[in-house]
Amino acid sequence: xxxxxxxxxxxxxxxxxxxxxxxxxxxxxxxxxxxxxxxxxxxxxxxxxxxxxxxxxxxxxxxxxxxxxxxxxxxxxxxxxxxxxxxxxxxxxxxxxxxxxxxxxxxxxxxxxxxxxxxxxxxxxxxxxxxxxxxxxxxxxxxxxxxxxxxxxxxxxxxxxxxxxxxxxxxxxxxxxxxxxxxxxxxxxxxxxxxxxxxxxxxxxxxxxxxxxxxxxxxxxxxxxxxxxxxxxxxxxxxxxxxxxxxxxxxxxxxxxxxxxxxxxxxxxxxxxxxxxxxxxxxxxxxxxxxxxxxxxxxxxxxxxxxxxxx
Length: 311
Description:
The protein is built from four helices and 14 strands. It has 311 residues and is an alpha+beta fold. It has two domains: 32-121; 124-288, Rod shape-determining protein MreC, domain 1 (Thrombin, subunit H). The strands form three sheets. Strands 3-4-7-6-5-14 form a six-stranded antiparallel β-barrel. It is rod-shaped and about 160 Å long.
């Protein structure tokens, strides 16, 4: 009662205060009225929604942007993890492919070596290359078999379809092989011509993965790609081992010089496995003597025939 009287006294003294009270009472009364065409919504609720909707829209957009950024970060993190897994799987597959390629190369080399051993009926000792003499331009290699495996000095070594060289030093469990491309190496060679002729010469190394063949008699002509084999007359290598093929500096030419370049048949720059031919040197020397005697007999017969024809 005292508050009401006090309010009336204030209203009389300050009409603005009375106007504010009446406006507030009017707003309260309106807020309890229902919105036309929407009986379930109060006027105060509509006013509240109208005032807060822009702020809610901004707040909702900000929240969605933050959530989107978080989701994008998580997606990138998952994608990065997936990429790392795929990269590891790819590396594993590459390693498997390399391993399969190495096995395939070993099988191919094994086939070639078996062909050689079966074709010439030589017993062979398989060995792996474990070292190279880099100071001499790969002039020698070291293999993992030695005297305990039956390897001895001057035994021929082959790989990949061609002659590699010969054993020059043996230890109980290792041996050193002199390659045919070393300048210290020399062997008798025969050029097998496609026309059926044979030219005898000397094969020497040049220290650059190639050899030179010097003919004993001046040749008529040679062709690019003709095979060169061992003659068997040097007392070290048996006859018939493939040395390489002629590689002319001018492949279009047909006239051969006194010396031609020979490309080795064996892959000397990437040797991994070799086979040492278990042939006693005495046997090779005996075969060499027999070949020399036969050639001398043939030359004597040819000389007799020429003399008889002259008569």
